[in-house]
Amino acid sequence: MKSIRGKQALVTGGASGLGRGIALALAREGADVYLWDVNAEGMAAVGDEIRALGVSSASRKVDLTKPAEITAAVTALTEEWGGVDILVNNAGVAFYGPTHTMTAEQWDWLMGINLLAPIQITRELLPSLLERPEGHILNICSIAGLVAGGRFAGYHTSKFGLIGFSESLRAEYGRRGLHVTSLCPGPVKTDLYRKCATSKERKTVPEPPQWVCTTVEAVARKAIRAIRYNHRMPLVGLLAHFLWNMKWMAPGFLDFLNHLSRKKRTVPNTIESRPTENASLKRAA
Q1: Fold classified for 8-284
Q2: Domain boundaries in the chain?
Q3: d(Cα 69, Cα 72) in Å, to the nearest integer?
Q4: What is the DSSP letter of 147?
Q5: For a Cys-Cys bond, which of 5, 31, 259, 284 suits 26, CB 3.0-4.6 Å?
Q6: pLDDT digits (tens, 9 = 90+) for 24-78
Q7: Do residues 90 and 192 make contact, with C-beta atoms less than 8 angstroms apart?
Q8: Quick one: what percent of the chain has pLDDT higher than 70?
Q9: Is 34 a catalytic residue?
Q10: Predicted local distance difference test score (pLDDT) of residue 284
């Protein structure tokens, strides 16, 4: 994209964290920014910050687990702005705990926000994106979409799927001038872990050490560069680069580490170990 100035961008999950950081970075480059989130107060505050930078901002409260709300929001955006030049699929949630303790409702909730919503938003905005001379889709995929670990199976699955979706779009529409980026940061200093749903109510989710975490500002800078230069799959942070290179150079070593402290297999009590379906989802909201 030759210039971001004057472009129109949609950022999902724009009320806080990475969404806020990327939205403000786009505004500093001169883009008008439309925000989607469930946090109306947070969006209002970010919208004020965006307008203070001399560009336009709009927002809409959207629950990404509800396809009808997404369709209504796309219709409203199209009527108001005529479409967008930049789509940032950023909104995401996580679940921490043994995979066998995840309920069907928890799987549907996580996959709906992290994977199905970006697919629907992209599908419904594709016609307007293809009409723009320099359309760009930026999907926040995470290093978790390239390298897997334990107790985050749902999150890994959604991010692996989002990378596959991004690569497919890039392969299909690159000849038509539509640019697609899979942005893959390592752990970021946000509230993702603190707001993470868990297998047990009030269970503390372990957070990575601060020294291995990258910052929102670093991710936002890399996002702007990816949009400007059509980068395919940029990594952000030392841990992201280390894990990705380790997987390619010594994939067997990572697999060895995952089996190093293997415990004696036991039959899980799936009835007693599962929380009530709504408890951990409310905690993560």
Answers
A1: Rossmann fold (3.40.50)
A2: 8-284
A3: 5
A4: S
A5: 31
A6: 999 999 999 999 999 999 999 999 999 999 999 999 999 999 999 999 999 999 9
A7: no
A8: 91
A9: no
A10: 45
Describe the chain by its helix, strand, coil percentages, rounded to 5.
50, 15, 35
Catalytic residue among 155, 173, 193, 229: 155
Write down the pLDDT at residue 204.
79
For residue 221, give every residue at least 6 positions away whose Cβ sits within 8 Å of its Cβ, in sequence order, or none. Answer: 25
Angle at 117 between CA 175 and CA 95, to 5 degrees: 125
Which residues have C-beta within 8 Å of that of residue 69, sequence separation ≥ 6? 62, 63
Alpha helices in the chain, H assignment, sequence order: 17-28, 40-51, 67-81, 104-111, 117-131, 153-173, 216-229, 238-249, 251-259, 270-273, 279-284
For residue 180, the SS3 value is strand
pLDDT in tens, 80-116: 999 999 999 999 999 999 999 999 999 999 999 999 9
